Amino acid sequence: MNRLAGRVCLVTGSTGMAAAAAIRLAEEGANVFIASRSEEHAGDLADRIAAAAGVADHAAADLTVESEANEVVDRCVARFGRIDGLFSVVGGSGRRFGDGPIDTVGADAWRATLDLNLTSQALVCAAVIRAMRAQVPNESGTRGAILLMGSVTATDPVPELFGTHAYAAAKGAIAALTTALAATYVNDRIRVNAVAPSLTDTPMAARAAGDERILEFSRRKQPLAGAMLDPAEVAHAVVYFLSDESRTVTGQVLKIDGGWSVVSAEPRPAS
Hints:
Blueprint: E1 8-12, H1 16-27, E2 31-36, H2 39-51, E3 55-60, H3 66-80, E4 85-88, H4 107-134, E5 144-149, H5 165-185, E6 190-197, H6 206-209, H7 212-221, H8 231-242, E7 253-256
């Protein structure tokens, strides 16, 4: 406990993995600032943290809009004085925009899905890095740590069940962005890493949770997790990457997948 005592962590997103991580970061002593499109969800999460004797604040913002991403970072710094860690989670399925196999995806669906899953993270990173470069290093000698959100489906696809190509492209780009940022800002003492979870029990996975064929496949594909990964498993990694336990780790993408990437399994034919 208290591995993040006195640190300030910005979390984008307010449900699923973002919520689990925000709660864990607060339990470890961090002051947490939550940014989400939903004022209600962000406020409820901040209230839950405060009710458990943690410290949290929040703001509602559309992080695909540059001015709103900048404002969130400014508000976090104004509230807590600095940013020591960023967990950039905001994103989601592009199916509602029309994402799917590339031969079915129109330009509007492509742009909307990449905006949600890639542009949002890039804009927040830009603002956070500017803030981190301007602040003095903490007691560990680093200015901050950034953790981006990828997906195991970008490297270990299952097209029969998860054939959303704009989403996969966005998450693949997150891995490249992680490497580029880590290399560019290492001498500023800013670390950049990413996590790539497999199928996780979050609101985004509601479609999968209601499909027994997907659940049956997942039980075989990620046997260490069961049908779906618990968001708490990702939160454990977030604490590691944003704490001094990983102070010499940068440019890495960690798969948290219950075995997904190493287990050979094929979806069974639909009945």
